[in-house]
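Input record, target 12 of the design panel.
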């Protein structure tokens, strides 16, 4: 699973096996270690919620999604799903969860293992 943040937005990208495991009720978790025992962890889980939401619990970002949304997404060609979580004032947190596609431009160190075929891939 990959996590991307920018301003008030979170984007998660999941591989094929992660999507399948999540749709079956599992939870996907990953982490970034900074040394000296410090780490940022993040997860996505199926939860009894009415819409996609995110919570920050210490150094852990947790995204939760309704079971019906996950089942529909996993069993279709749908690339992703999103949610908007209201914040103070007129601000909001945008949450986007997508299937991870094979990169069109290969970069050293990147792995395209268990990814979805990119729709613009010509090879």
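The sequence produced for target 12 reads:
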């Amino acid at each position: 699973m990959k996590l991307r943040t920018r301003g008030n937005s979170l984007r998660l990208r999941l591989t094929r096996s992660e999507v399948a495991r999540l749709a079956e009720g599992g939870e996907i978790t990953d982490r970034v270690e900074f040394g000296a025992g410090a780490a940022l962890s993040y997860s996505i889980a199926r939860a009894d919620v009415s819409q996609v939401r995110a919570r920050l619990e210490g150094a852990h970002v947790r995204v939760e999604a309704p079971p019906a949304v996950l089942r529909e997404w996993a069993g279709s060609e749908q690339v992703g799903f999103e949610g908007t979580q209201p914040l103070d004032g007129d601000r909001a947190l945008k949450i986007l969860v997508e299937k991870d596609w094979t990169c069109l431009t290969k970069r050293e160190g990147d792995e395209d293992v268990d990814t979805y075929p990119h729709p613009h891939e010509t090879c």
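The longest helix spans residues 16-23.
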